[in-house]
Every structure is written in C-alpha cells, then in structure tokens.
Amino acid sequence: MKPKNSKERRNSFLKFILIFILTVGTIVTAVFFDFQIADKENEVLKEQAILVREELKFQAEFANRMERVSLMIDSLTAPGAQVSFDNAEIGSRLSELQSSIPRKDSTANYELYDKIIKTFVKLQKSQNRLIDVREVEEQIKEFEIQLKDCDEEVADLERDLQVALRN
C-alpha cells in the first residue's frame, strides 16, 4: 500500500530539510561572525590600550622633565646663579622636550605639549627680565646714593663759596 500523497510528503520533507539547512547555516554563520568580530574588536582594543599606555608613559616622562626644567627656571633668580649657563641649559632641555613630542600623536595632544613648552620659554624670558629689572633697580639705588652724595658736596661747596665771598 502506497500512500496517495507521497509526492506531496516528499516535497514537504525536502522543503523542511532545505529550510532547516538554511536556518542552521544562518545560525552557524552568525555565530562564526560573532566570534570573528569579537576577535577583531579585541585586537583593536589591545592596540588602543597599548597606545594609551604609551601615551601615559610619555605624559609621566614629560611631566618629570618639565618639573626639572621648572626647578631650573626657578633657580635663575637665586642669589649666585650663573644665569647665562642656566639659560643655555634650560634652552637645550626645552629643545629636547620639543623634539621628544611624538608627531604621530593626535594634533590636540601635540598642540598641548607644544603650548606647554612655549609657556615655559615665556616663563624663562620673564625670569630673565625680572633679573634685568632687579639689576636696574640696584643701579638706580646706587645712582640715588651718588646723587645724594653729590648734592651734599654741592651744598658744602656753596657754603665754602659763601664763606669765601664774605671774607
């Protein structure tokens, strides 16, 4: 005995198998790509983490070197400081810092580091102007003392002249 709808059953079974294979294939493909994307994402995140670590390391080194330069700039106004030697040393340290800034860095960070260095150059120039102003103040005080001495000498000479004219 053969069933009357065997052809329909076979077609339905083949359609079921086809849909089953397509569904399983889609699920397997989705799972495969899900793991592939996660692996690629992990690689990208690892690269970014390495870049962030390098940036943090550079920032720490940059901050330490800037602290040393800051101390050198502060020592310019100390009594007995060798200003020309210290200025040359500060200039060389600042140029080393300028050249150590990574160019591949994002432009915002490069500009930040560059502006910090330019600010320290301005601070160095301001300290030098302060030293010059202090020297000028000392000269003014010396000139005021000399002027006072000259005024006293002129007063003495006028007194002597008047005494001489009376006689």
What does this molecule look like?
The structure is a single chain. With 167 residues, this protein is mainly alpha-helical. The chain has one domain (13-131). It contains three helices and no strands. The chain has helices at residues 6-74, 83-100, 107-166. Helix 1 runs parallel beside helix 3 (107-166) and helix 2 (83-100) runs antiparallel to helix 3. The protein starts with 5 loop residues before the first helix and ends with a helix.
Give a quick summary of the entry.
By secondary structure, the protein is an all-alpha fold. The chain has helices spanning 6-74, 83-100, 107-166.
Distance between the amino and carboxyl termini: 171 Å
Tally of individual helices: 3
* Global morphology: rod-shaped
Tally of distinct domains = 1
Average pLDDT score: 89
Unreliably modeled segments: none
Question: How many β-strand runs?
Answer: 0
Order of helices and strands: HHH
